[in-house]
Amino acid sequence: MFQSLEFPKEALIGKGWRSLPRRFPVVSPATGEAVVEVADCGSEEAAEALEEAVAAQRAWSQATAYERAGVLRRWHDLILAHEEPLARLMALEMGKPLKEARGEVRYAAGFVEWYAEEAKRVYGETLPSQFPHKRILVRYEPVGPVYGITPWNFPAAMVTRKVAPALAAGNSFVLKPAEESPLTALYLARLFLEAGGPPGVFQVLPTSDPEALSRPFLEDERVRKLTFTGSTPVGLKLYGEAAKTLKRVSLELGGGAPVLVFADADLERAVAETVRAKFRNVGQSCVAANLILVEEPVAEAFAEAYAERVKALKVGDPLLEETDIGPLVNRAALEKVEGHVQDALARGASLVAGGEAKGLYFAPTVLLDVRPGSRIFREETFGPVAPIATFQNEEEAVARANALPSGLAAYLFTRNLSRAFRVAEALDYGIVGVNDGVPSTPQAPFGGVRRSGLGREGGRWGLEEYLEVKYISLGL
Ligand code: NAD
């Protein structure tokens, strides 16, 4: 069915699509076969895109907010109209099960809709002066041009969550998508042009060499903002590089979320939500549950019901309607998952579901009695493995959650309102889901503290990341 589907495979630079003799393969993790060869951009294309971005920024920042909002609104409508090909493209290039991929397209479109609306609400301010002949004005101006780097795990939503607010604020944007998933990004760019987006405002440069491609953007003084979503080690490196030209920086980095299930929780709901929080996108989500802590009196009942649900998840071809669990993205991902399971078992955990691999498919797995110190508790697994351990009281649960290195998302389940507030406030995380396993939504601030990064995406906070403040002092 994909043979008949047309999708862009070239780079989008300046005025249009650029076919390059250098290409790299996009490999389907489900079949191991190359889907297509994509244009492989290098420093020459980067230098050209950079000049185009600088030129496009000038015109786009002078377009009215209503014009920018109009383009974003039309882009949103086209993304929704192309839900099916976009979902299939994601299933093909990075193995996301089709029904989840459709949900991601709607989620991705939601950011474009939200920022189409917000584009018109970038208000300035006037402040009272202590002098009668002075006026104090504050304006918000676009910070850019912007250079953005996205990961493969949400190939559509991680793009729109950055590009839509940046464009709404009047910036041009050069995107470097992940090597594993450039096709979804290119398809989104085609829809942007169809929506009447001016050439040069949004450019997409696929590459097999992210470091070399990024260098000109990081080194150039005129690129005023870097936005990155990906792993903490790469984020740290880029933070250092961007510091040399003092760029504004947003970093959405690794997670590894704790889940605290208290004995007073609605257990059925806690089980259902924690299955979603763990197994969405085959566990390859930055807000995925990584450590499930259950209060001792309900631990056995929770684990039994949890394992039951996990065993019912359907593993299979991501392009099939019924599939819940597709393949992992590549061999390195599979090896990490296997390593975490073996380490936990060697330290005394017991396996109650899954545990076996076939190709890049890893069966949804539940481990009980996982011992503190196990790798799976210290590192982001990024795969379909749920480790369950117990705790004795609230203080211990919060302390164990806050001892983890990342601070992106945490979850807690309780029916006690006082406890819900107390624990949510005590957790040292950027996002807390209370009786909710999927808190991400376009209007809310998404982002982490500690080793999970800097800045927020979504809502008005996501727009502020792309705005500079100008103060005008006016003497009458
Ligand atoms: P990664 O850091 O390996 O790659 C992310 C992106 O960075 C890719 O586009 C890659 O090409 C690029 N990159 C890699 N090395 C680079 C370099 N030296 N210079 C410039 N660019 C470089 O991460 P990944 O494995 O693709 O993604 C998974 C990670 O992303 C996980 O840790 C996950 O938690 C995190 N993530 C975070 C969020 C969030 O919002 N906090 C969202 C999704 C994923």
TrEMBL record:
Species for this entry: Thermus thermamylovorans
Protein name: NAD-dependent succinate-semialdehyde dehydrogenase
Keyword hit for Oxidoreductase: yes
Highest taxon, organism lineage: Bacteria
Molecular function GO labels: oxidoreductase activity, acting on the aldehyde or oxo group of donors, NAD or NADP as acceptor
UniProt entry keywords in alphabetical sequence: Oxidoreductase
Family: Belongs to the aldehyde dehydrogenase family.
PANTHER family: SUCCINATE-SEMIALDEHYDE DEHYDROGENASE, MITOCHONDRIAL
Taxonomic lineage of the native organism: Bacteria, Thermotogati, Deinococcota, Deinococci, Thermales
Sequence ranges assigned to domain Aldehyde dehydrogenase in this UniProt record: 22-472
